[in-house]
């Protein structure tokens, strides 16, 4: 199987290393024969090309790995490759979350495969596990720590007693966070991953604009200390739940008991959980990002395509509506303004701040409550 | 695909329920058509037969699920079914650990499949994950909580402040532990599961008589309190590690930091971890036993056979020798007799007991140390 890689950054070079350098029996007949990169990198390796047509028009290439990231030109390149009857494997969550159904349609029309395990959960076999579980079970819900950067920040704040800004800077120095960290800390990364996971778990097209996504940037060292004194810990969570033909989904900080698994996830690791009717609760833990774990997930997809392994076609045919009154949950709000409202259960004062716990209320009511808060620095979280 | 089930206890009836009653697309062409049970149960269901030949001689049966447990007559029945060119799926860890290579040989000779996901980790997709990871990575080690009964006991001792005997009795009342709990608390159950996991992970026949298996029955409420005061928790662990053509394996209590995932595994859940060179550390958590989770794992095997899904043939061809000097680890011993020895690092007195921590020593030296202890109630554990 001849493979081309689009993009030769961290993930692309990881795929190249695994496919061309690891001595595994399964990989013997796989070879990276072309890599698309910028003209200034042309001399790095003799298989680098700079024109996508050198790949799409090359009939010897069976499969294309897309690791460029972003929506454009990744979208056009993926479509172009599928239309040229090449299997496509990608780690690009943004383009998959936005265009999954287009890609699946193109792949089907052209008799090839489109796979994206590495887009969500990095090296954790998460999407395959959803697909596998669904052969028998209905998946009623899933949730988890889908972002390693924010987990690294929260874990450093908790274990090293650091302020948010200090922990973020360290994450940037280690290459876990971008110079502009918004995609991680404001939740767009997790939003993409929840969208992809929910589409697979619930067999339905999910529009990420429908469900709420709250930033974790307002979590302070004091918040973590406050929760610690209550034997709790805050983590940044993506979650989705289905009831009949409706669903709810969130990206938001969530409060866990300090002896829960989630509260104890260290460093930049991820943990994701699914619930099925016969399998019960399954959790998967591992590196949700990084060169070799992510490249490993891509190569697992390549091998599944090569060996025609499939846990069933991805279908997005079910009509599922977003509904913000399915769940009734308790929330925690930390703000410097007192709130008076029928939904408030208890208030604790800490210095200039109020830690306000709500009664179990619907998302609809919670959104009204949030919109009534003028404090731009307010921290909001859901209780697990 | 017509399926016969051998044994109609908890697991067998779970498989029957899932295959014949769950409305999943994938299961539409699967049907349980015969169940082998005792003559006194003949009238329970009209598909019950009492003679194995009614199944082996029935050409309409494609696959046999063995859920009887124990070595005999499970061994003979499995071989008989394979020789009659029927695929076999089993949850029976004892017979798989003892005779895996015979079964794989018979299956190969007869052009059928032999699968045993449910034998280890119950509903957790553990063996499939080992097989999948191995397509790319060398698995250097694995460890985990492989037994839900003992985890339930330790968790109750820790969170409900119960004595060992009280927790064990509750586990028996809940059906987690047998009337004779030895297979769980003395480690034979975990020994089987480590043997099966190591064979798959390391591609080698593993003889469970080679590696040490320590009981957890000597762990007391006082031990748990002592460890709690050191921010630690004890769990009952199976572990194996490979270096070149040698391996070490253990079944024994292990001491974990209280903020580790293992320390926080609740109730009767399992967690198992593998380490690969590119994927890093992967952990899998779920129900390691119980009717529907175990039956789910069996049905996943059935569907993999039906859909010809395989992560590669199981080969036990590599020659791997047990070696008790690969690892150097620290151990904890609680005993009422003082020990004087060059390997001792520190001793703490608590009432009539000494809590003795060793230096990092080989298993060989540790075994010498253990054999020198006359206290039959001594508790021994390895530090993680």
UniProtKB/TrEMBL annotation, chains A, B:
Domain (Aspartate/homoserine dehydrogenase NAD-binding): residue spans on this chain: 7-117
Binding site for NADP(+): 7-12
GO MF, one example: homoserine dehydrogenase activity
Homoserine dehydrogenase catalytic domain span: 125-303
Pfam families reported for this sequence: Homoserine_dh, NAD_binding_3
GO biological process terms held by the UniProt record: methionine biosynthetic process; threonine biosynthetic process
UniProt keywords, alphabetically: Amino-acid biosynthesis, Methionine biosynthesis, NADP, Oxidoreductase, Sodium, Threonine biosynthesis
Catalytic activity: L-homoserine + NADP(+) = L-aspartate 4-semialdehyde + NADPH + H(+)
UniProt pathway annotation: Amino-acid biosynthesis; L-threonine biosynthesis; L-threonine from L-aspartate: step 3/5; Amino-acid biosynthesis; L-methionine biosynthesis via de novo pathway; L-homoserine from L-aspartate: step 3/3
InterPro entries in alphabetical order: Asp/hSer_DH_NAD-bd, HDH_cat, HDH_CS, HDH_short, NAD(P)-bd_dom_sf
SUPFAM superfamilies: Glyceraldehyde-3-phosphate dehydrogenase-like, C-terminal domain, NAD(P)-binding Rossmann-fold domains
EC number of the protein: 1.1.1.3
Positions contributing to NADPH binding: 93
Keyword flag Amino-acid biosynthesis: yes
Binding site for L-homoserine: 178
Annotated catalytic residues: 193 (proton donor)
Top-rank lineage group of the source organism: Bacteria
UniProt record similarity statement: Belongs to the homoserine dehydrogenase family.
Name used for this protein in its record: Homoserine dehydrogenase
